[in-house]
Specification:
Order of helices and strands: HHEEEEEHEHEHEHEHHEEEEE
CATH topology of the largest domain: Muramoyl-pentapeptide Carboxypeptidase, domain 2
Number of domains: 3
Length: about 300
């Protein structure tokens, strides 16, 4: 199904003449109260302009919010798509023994990715080529159990996850870079900074963000992006949530409306959806914590 990208607002800003700035600063120093008042007004003005999406180096981001909604008539869905987009994979939540990744070759390469991930990465890569005149590369993507076992043996537990506990075995995780900027240095590049701030526009999250090591079990990895789909990536990105934190936001069996989608975290044997949306595009994903997520695209989403 098509997933939209939000546009960016980047108007130009003009610099004031240097002499005028110095003159105004000199006057302000003579009148502390006036200077303080002016500073307050400026700060308030900045917040207003930011909220309106005026500044060129700030994105206008309507922060999505989850709102509980109630539906009386629930039925079995017509034609749901099953995937693994919202699976939590970690030391505490290893992959099921019978798990099989739904992977495809990315375009005309021998690189394997989960099918939704491949589509989303193609869109992200194309945008970067067009807007940054740079090329986004993938250093690591889908791994078999045997490949993960080898990598764990070579790199150790500080860097690599145990076999069966790595997101790379789902095909949903990608390690990305641009020429001369890889690993921790990825964000030293304009592309790296863009990916870390805006990958949610393509359904990705920074899976191991800074300051969340006690939750994810891994340090900050700005190069490691993980596909979770829409609107989940936008919500997690805007509120700085890890996947572990995000899945716990939802009360079991309840429905939530957000940014043109309906979301519900449900018991595995309770796959029911609102009757009026039973034939809409929807995705069903286990969370690997014993429940499933139902995500429905509502008619009229652009």
């Amino acid at each position: 199904m098509p997933w939209p990208r939000r546009s960016l607002l980047r108007p130009n800003r003009k610099q004031r003449p240097r002499k005028k700035v110095k003159k105004n600063l000199s006057k302000s120093l003579k009148y502390p109260a006036v200077a303080a008042s002016a500073a307050i007004v400026c700060v308030l003005g900045l917040f207003i302009l930011y909220d309106e999406g005026v500044f060129g180096n700030l994105r206008f981001k309507g922060i999505p919010s989850l709102e509980k909604v109630v539906f009386e008539d629930l039925v079995s869905p017509e034609d749901p798509v099953f995937c693994s987009d919202l699976m939590v994979v970690s030391k505490d939540h290893p992959l099921p023994e019978d798990f099989e990744a739904d992977v495809v070759f990315y375009k005309d390469t021998d690189v394997l990715m989960e099918r939704h991930t491949a589509e989303a990465y193609g869109a992200l890569s194309a945008y970067i080529s067009e807007e940054f005149d740079d090329k986004l590369y993938v250093s690591s993507t889908y791994r078999t159990y045997e490949e993960q076992e080898r990598i764990y043996g070579e790199e150790g537990g500080e860097i690599a996850a145990l076999p069966g506990m790595s997101e790379h075995q789902t095909g949903l995780a990608l390690d990305v870079y641009v020429m001369f900027f890889a690993g921790a240095g990825f964000t030293d590049s304009p592309v790296g900074r863009y990916v870390n701030s805006d990958c949610g526009d393509y359904g990705f999250i920074i899976r191991y963000p800074m300051g969340k090591e006690d939750i994810t079990g891994f340090g900050y990895e700005p190069w490691h992006i993980r596909y979770v789909g829409f609107p989940h990536a936008k919500i997690m990105g805007q509120y700085g949530l890890t996947l572990e934190e995000y899945v716990e936001l939802f009360d079991i069996g309840e429905w939530y409306s957000c940014d043109g989608y309906l979301i519900s975290r449900r018991e595995k044997d309770d796959l029911k959806v609102p009757a009026q949306y039973s034939d809409n595009d929807m995705i069903i994903s286990p969370d690997n914590e014993g429940y499933i997520f139902v995500t429905i695209e509502i008619d009229g989403v652009k």
